[in-house]
From TrEMBL:
Recorded family membership: Belongs to the class II aldolase/RraA-like family.
Native source organism of the sequence: Neisseria shayeganii 871
Function: Catalyzes the aldol cleavage of 4-hydroxy-4-methyl-2-oxoglutarate (HMG) into 2 molecules of pyruvate. Also contains a secondary oxaloacetate (OAA) decarboxylase activity due to the common pyruvate enolate transition state formed following C-C bond cleavage in the retro-aldol and decarboxylation reactions.
GO BP terms, alphabetized: methylation; regulation of RNA metabolic process
Binding residue positions for substrate: G76, D77, M78, I79, R98
Organismal lineage: Bacteria, Pseudomonadati, Pseudomonadota, Betaproteobacteria, Neisseriales
Catalysed reaction equations from the record: oxaloacetate + H(+) = pyruvate + CO2; 4-hydroxy-4-methyl-2-oxoglutarate = 2 pyruvate
Pfam families xref list: RraA-like
InterPro entries for the chain: RraA, RraA/RraA-like, RraA/RraA-like_sf
CDD domains: RraA_family
Enzyme category, top tier: lyase
Protein's recorded name: 4-hydroxy-4-methyl-2-oxoglutarate aldolase
Cofactor(s), names only, from the UniProt record: a divalent metal cation; Mg(2+)
GO MF, one annotated term: methyltransferase activity
């Protein structure tokens, strides 16, 4: 899937497509990204995130339900760079990141609530590839996510531009 789309145009084509109501901040040079969804649910611990981002991404998008916690960062520059190198399209994090200046130099896209320099736990507690919900939207593994400057859409099937 290419990042040659605009969510406003896609939702005009498929008006019933759900959009995320959370107002995320964008990080990284890749402001538009899309792909099949993989998920992680965790709380103040990025062990599962680090492990997954060090596997081939094949253009997928990681969606992390961090419960909206701003206590500690779930992704920093090292994990983001591993994801970029492994072919992940981007990440949506219902939580915070760190190393935002370094991440902003990368050809990688992240949507997150904000930043906090505090490191998270590393024990790997959490769940992978389960449906997660935030922003009045459910993110289901295998569905398609489209993210750009205007927001985030999720669809069970790819949305084809006219």
């Amino acid at each position: 899937m290419t990042a040659d789309f605009a969510t406003a145009d896609l939702i005009d084509l498929a008006p019933d497509t759900p959009s995320c109501e959370t107002d995320f901040k964008s990080y990284g040079r890749r402001r538009r990204f899309c792909g099949r969804i993989r998920t992680i649910r965790c709380h103040q611990d990025n062990g599962l995130i680090k492990a997954l981002m060090n596997t081939p991404g094949n253009g997928q998008v990681l969606v992390v339900d961090g419960g909206g916690s701003r206590y500690s960062a779930l992704m920093g520059d090292m994990i983001a760079d591993a994801a970029r190198q492994n072919g992940w399209a981007g990440a949506v994090i219902f939580g915070v990141i760190r190393d935002s200046v370094a991440i902003d130099q990368m050809d990688f896209g992240i949507k997150a609530l904000g930043t906090n320099p505090k490191k998270s736990g590393k024990s790997g507690v959490g769940e992978s590839d389960v449906s997660v919900s935030f922003g009045n939207l459910t993110f289901t593994p295998g569905h398609y996510l489209y993210s750009d400057e205007d927001g985030i859409l999720v669809s069970p099937e790819p949305i084809e531009a006219a």
